[in-house]
Amino acid sequence: MFGDVWQNPGTWRPRVVVVNLGTNDFSTAVNPGEPRTPGSLAAAYRMAYGDFIQKLRTRHGADATIVAVGAGQYAGHVQQVVKARNDAGDSRVRYWFLDDTGLDFLGCDWHYSESDTWDVLEAQ
Fold this sequence. Notes:
124 residues, alpha/beta, 3-stranded parallel sheet, 3 helices
């Protein structure tokens, strides 16, 4: 029922925040004439990802663990963002590699399908 929605009293903070961004956002190559090169696109991605992690840290506090999921071609970039945060003293940002080999990606625009989701959950 609509009236049964939990209202955050303002004091609740999550213990874990999971971020999974970019798994299929770069599924097409950068074409000649586009404003970015593959290298500058990757750098912009890392910068934006790092900024987003900082916003989450500010919003949820130092006690929350932030898990950054890396999959596909951008997994290494996610790992670099996490390493930079760790090197800066934020040890509560963690990296988790999602091995997506063997998934069918039959969801809309190369997203995980329902069977992919279950395959990933069962592998854990």
